Amino acid sequence: MATVDFEARQLLKAYRKGLISDELFESQMKELNNGYKGYAYNGTNHATESEMVMHLLDEFRCGENFAAEYLNKWIEVSDQACVKGGLRVVQQREAYHAQILEARLRELGGVPQCTVPQTRREKELPFYASSDKKDAEKLMSIASRISDPAAALKPLTDAIAQIQEDQQSKELLRSLVDDEMSSVKWLLEACQTLNAPKAA
């Protein structure tokens, strides 16, 4: 990005001094912008690393906060002691992640803005809070969405790989991704255990 900024400044200087025509200036700027993709997270492009990091922190915080909320409801109605024990750990992790992500967002001058869409809340909260739905079914629902943990976390890991300047946020996020991998691994193993075909 620094190279693009430098080249744009040089072009602007030449244009202001009358060394290049309007047409040449315009075409050169277009060429520069086409060659530079900016920073991207989850399908959204950002002009600066800082903008992308704040977007990432806010969206990640939002998702973790919602996960902590529905996991809490699930724990209350869990029908398997072994699942309830693991869920408590995962729920605490998600709640902690939401707190630390919000703290970092605020340190950078951001304000939490992301909210979970109402349609998702209305679909998922009652499902996980239901005592009619068994742990095996709830685990199967999660496993169907994250059968490939690396692919599920790819938007995050791709964005983290782009961070060069904000090393504090980068390492914070890398650590949280490791936590997420542990949670996903446990959820998938629990799902496999509870949904394994019963021996005759």
Textual characterization of the structure:
The structure is a single chain. The chain has 200 residues and is mostly helical. The chain has two domains: 1-36, no CATH class; 47-194, Ferritin. Helix content is 74%, strand content 3%. The chain has helices at 2-16, 22-35, 49-77, 81-107, 118-129, 135-145, 149-152, 154-162, 167-194; strands at 39-41, 44-46. It has a two-stranded antiparallel sheet with strand order 1-2. Helix 3 packs antiparallel against helix 8. The longest helix has 29 residues, at 49-77. The protein is elongated. It starts with a helix and ends in a 6-residue tail after the last helix.
Describe the SSE topology.
Blueprint (H helix, E strand, L loop, with lengths): L1 H15 L5 H14 L3 E3 L2 E3 L2 H29 L3 H27 L10 H12 L5 H11 L3 H4 L1 H9 L4 H28 L6
Helix pairs in contact: 1-2, 3-4, 3-5, 3-8, 4-9, 6-9, 8-9
What is this entry, summarized?
The protein is mainly α. 74% of the residues lie in helices and 3% in strands.
Number of strands: 2
Distance between the termini: 63 Å
Largest sheet descriptor: 2 strands, antiparallel
Rg result: 23 Å
What's the shape?
elongated
Question: What is the CATH topology descriptor of the largest domain?
Answer: Ferritin
Low-confidence stretches: none
Q: H/E series, N to C? A: HHEEHHHHHHH
Q: On the 0-100 scale, what is the average pLDDT?
A: 90
User: How many individual helices?
Assistant: 9
Please state roughly what percent of the residues sit in beta strands, choosing from under 5%, 5-15%, 15-25%, 25-35%, 35-45% or over 45%: under 5%
Report the oligomer: single chain
Cross-sheet strand order for the largest sheet: 1-2
